[in-house]
Amino acid sequence: MIAQLELEWLGGPAASRFRRRRPGADDLPWGSLAAAAPSLPDEVAAAARASFTDGAFSEYASAAAFAALASALLEAGAPIDLIAMAGDFVVDEMVHVELNARLAMELGGAAPYAVDLDKVAPLVDAALPAIERAAELAVKISCIGEALSVPVLSGSLRAAGHPLVRAVLARLARDEPPHARIGWLILDWAEGRLDAARLAAVAGEALAAYAPLWRQASDDADPAHRRTLGWMDGATYRRALTRAVRERVARPLAARGIAVDTARLDLGEPGEPWRRR
Ligand SMILES: [Fe+2]
Ligand SMILES: [Fe+2]
Fold first, then answer.
1. CB count in 10 Å sphere of residue 47
2. From the CA of 173, how far away is ligand 2's center (Å)?
3. How far is CA 265 from CA 39, 97, 102, 154, 270, in A?
4. Residues 235-257: pLDDT tens digits?
């Protein structure tokens, strides 16, 4: 069912366990963005609310993705510690949901945002063997999704001016690198038992779905928005993403025999100036 995104907080034993497992969320300078809100131009406040609402949902979807990955790893009889890692990331992502939701609340609450939670988890062919489903989810979620979000988060952190936005981005940037690592651990564990050609097609399609991010990166946003929200300028954003696709995704996939066709992704020339050191 498609409905406005709404998030609840139960409190009591659920909240205290969550806080014990992942301390720190209450220590951020909450209230400071709300205090600054009256001085923000309307369009900046609206863009910020929309961006934090979108952030809350994409973290929620990441939690669903890691839960699906943990299930597939369980069904595949994966190593204990590897399964635990995937399950633990669900909790990380719920912290990120909370942080984004609280940022949106500083500005009056969620922006209009229609979602179908029945479809929040990534789709995989249930007829595939569990190890193939786990590898496919690992590639889409971790080797690609998280690998692309790591440099975007650190770039956003460098760009962000508001202390609360910075504090949230710093927490996210600290938590995410292991999320981008688990995919490679899974591929290496499953080595020799996977259909590399199928995974190459999966990876190519997943990357093509992200391509609008770097194709359409623009400098339209007002610099004041960008500073408040930690949005990188278009060129920096494009560079961070295309470099991540080459160096953090395509290259390590190729090293594992999963050859992705990057020609259709419009990554630009590898010799462009940002690659000169
Ligand atoms: Fe996250
Ligand atoms: Fe993540």
1. 21
2. 9
3. 41, 30, 35, 23, 13
4. 899 999 999 999 999 999 999 99
